[in-house]
Predict the structure.
Amino acid sequence: MTFLLLVSSCVVFAQETSKAVSIVEDKYKVNTAFQPGEVLVYDLKYGIVKGGELKISVGLEPVGYDYYFHVKAVCYSTGVVSKLAHIYDIYESLFDITTGYPLKAIRNVTENNYKRYNEDIFCQDSSVIYSMKSGRHEVPPHTFDLISAFFYSRRFIFDKKYAKNEEMQLHTWFNEKLYLVTLRYKKTEMIKSDFGKIECLKFVPVLSDKSVFTKEDDLEAWFTNDGNYVPLKIKIDMPFAAIRCELKSYKNLKNTDGWLK
């Protein structure tokens, strides 16, 4: 399991529950959450020790006669941790600027001596994914890669009003496997950050029995409660370590009147 997957687990692994409802809807909604040029940088900490950084940048790329959002996420080890483990993981996603549905996902992982590169092509009209490594896979309609699921959530999910413990679902394809993502809304709260006190939406994933996360509060995520819905903090309690992902810097947010000025 890669380091970036741990950081982003809030939108990856989950099980189906009877209370959850589909959230793939209103595909022509105007995008008010992010824009090309947005850059988010995070500190990654093991306990109190800083172990790495995560940088997420949003761009545009021409594909045929259209343009697609091109998001690149780079996760790398720093400081003392880099002496023990060399980590440099790159994830990329091209997804439709109108619907948010993915066209292509790239995974380029380097973790010590382990290296892996793969590309997935998403055929939304036929519910098929073509993997460079494993070939053709039939999947449910509107299946997302890791990054496009994250940005789809910012654009289409977080601006709704939810009751406590209400759940939402997405299908996500990662590392040659299909996962049903279930997000559970917990509450809206003020949390402390390097940018002052910020009002956030707190979400918790519902995990399968086979997950390393055995308790509900093993994995929690907070998103700014404004038009940007920026992930401000992610907390991951693993059996071997407590991992924290906290926003370090940002630029070119879509809404300049949000909690992050």
